[in-house]
Design a protein that fits this description.
Layout (H helix, E strand, L loop, with lengths): L3 H17 L6 H16 L3 H18 L2 H17 L3 H18 L3 H17 L5 H15 L4 H4 L1 H11 L3 H22 L12 H15 L3 H41 L2 H4 L16 H4 L6 H16 L10 H7 L4 H12 L3 H19 L8 H7 L5 H12 L3 H14 L1
Helix pairs in contact: 1-2, 2-3, 2-4, 3-4, 4-5, 4-6, 5-6, 6-7, 9-10, 10-11, 12-21, 16-17, 19-20
């Protein structure tokens, strides 16, 4: 109720009581010191307040109470503000807000910390004070709790936007202020003295009506905005429908993938080892000609390459494999085309995706990995390359396939 003189006598008597009963190491003693420091700060007796803060910090070293530490630190930051040490106050209050947010401590103290941070920024002519005051406003509206001290943010915001001729914001914060006055009235059963200093309720209501009248002239602009907004909504609905249909397709493909065998999922065709048909065209004449024997040798080597899972090597390329198979790049490229019916890049991707699909089907632990980790297991350097390859080959995404596997496991 802001009766600081009466509160001070009660807190001092409580301190004596705790000391007489040998409770100066109790957590309640630290709370009492905090209350005294807060009360003296409100009375603008900063030096005395700081003395109780110092003792409070010392006592709290034993209790290691982080909430009480943040409370004491809050008063320290407020005292630095009253002393005119704005940068130092900002630094302390920033730490207070961080501790409160991290531990979900008292939102009222967070509002106080942000309020005095905003006042420091105002003194330093820094427009970031707006963000701080907006945070205070959001806390008040969310908690439906306010003090006459925190109420001061609204006249400041109203004046700020009045100078900018921003009537929308003026009206917004006038309505906010009326709501806060209602909260204060219910809380204290009477309006605080500060309410009638500059922005009493009748004046606020009159100003609100004037702003509404001015803003009514903007109706034509609003109609245009509504028209544009309607178009945007239609576009968004179209995109939403497209994405939804795509999601259904991915789910359908994922379910289908569960029932398909390895050979059905990815058709890495094994060509017949007879001499391939030679097409007599000018284009084909320029290509390298592979003998039947050479083709058979490379086919066997490729089979060993597949069986040994060497394709999971992240650095695997046409050049590297040609060296490992003791052949040249051109021969290997042509062999893959002849034997597999696709280029080397497609061949490598299909081997990897085919492998990881079977692994996911049989290894429930792998299903719990992140997409990035699964991509690493499949021989990809990043999840994006893996996801793109998976989608092109299977028609669905890894995430949808894993969900389908989870659903299957649950049903079984």
């Amino acid at each position: 109720m802001e009766n600081y003189d009466e509160a001070l006598n009660l807190f001092l008597n409580y301190k004596v009581f705790l000391e007489k009963n040998n409770l100066s190491d109790h957590s309640n003693y630290v709370r009492c010191l905090y209350a005294l420091a807060y009360t003296y700060s409100k009375r603008k007796e900063i030096e005395t307040s700081n003395q109780y803060l110092k003792l409070g910090f010392q006592k709290n070293e034993k209790n290691k109470n982080e909430r009480m530490y943040s409370n004491l630190l809050l008063i320290s930051g407020i005292n630095e503000f009253f002393a005119g040490n704005f940068p130092k106050s900002l630094s302390i209050l920033s730490e207070v807000s961080e501790i409160i947010n991290k531990n979900s401590f008292d939102s009222q103290n967070l509002a106080l910390s942000e309020y005095y941070s905003g006042k420091c920024l105002m003194k330093l002519n820094n427009d970031r004070f707006l963000k701080k005051f907006e945070t205070v406003d959001s806390i008040i509206i969310k908690t439906k709790d306010a003090t006459s001290e925190l109420r001061d943010v609204y006249p400041i915001l109203i004046d700020y936007y009045k100078n900018l001729h921003n009537k929308d914001k003026q009206l917004f914060y006038i309505e906010r202020l009326l709501a806060v006055d209602s909260i204060l009235y219910k809380k204290n059963n009477s309006l605080s003295n500060a309410i009638n200093k500059k922005y009493d309720t009748p004046l606020l209501l009159k100003e609100k009506e004037r702003l509404i009248e001015d803003l009514s002239s903007k109706n034509s602009k609003l109609f245009w905005l509504l028209g544009i907004g309607s178009i945007l909504v239609i576009v968004l609905l179209f995109l939403y429908t497209q994405n939804r249909n795509k999601a259904k397709l991915y789910k359908k493909k994922a379910d289908l993938l569960l029932t398909e065998s390895e050979s059905q999922v990815i058709s890495i065709e094994k060509a017949d080892l007879d001499i391939p048909e030679i097409i007599d065209t000018e284009k084909e004449k320029t290509k390298l000609k592979l003998s039947d024997e050479k083709l058979k040798q490379l086919s066997l080597k490729l089979q060993e390459f597949e069986n040994g899972n060497s394709f999971l090597n992240k650095n695997m390329s046409l050049d590297i494999l040609s060296k490992e198979l003791n052949t040249n790049r051109a021969y290997l490229s042509r062999s893959v085309n002849e034997l597999k019916g696709k280029n080397f890049s497609q061949y490598l991707n299909e081997l990897r995706i085919n492998y990881i699909i079977e692994e996911l089907k049989t290894n429930t632990q792998l299903q719990k990995y992140t997409i990035a980790s699964i991509a690493d297991q499949a021989g990809y350097n990043n999840s994006e390359s893996f996801t793109n390859a998976f989608r092109k080959i299977t028609g669905t995404l890894p995430s949808y396939f894993i969900k389908a596997l989870d659903k299957k496991d649950v049903n079984n």
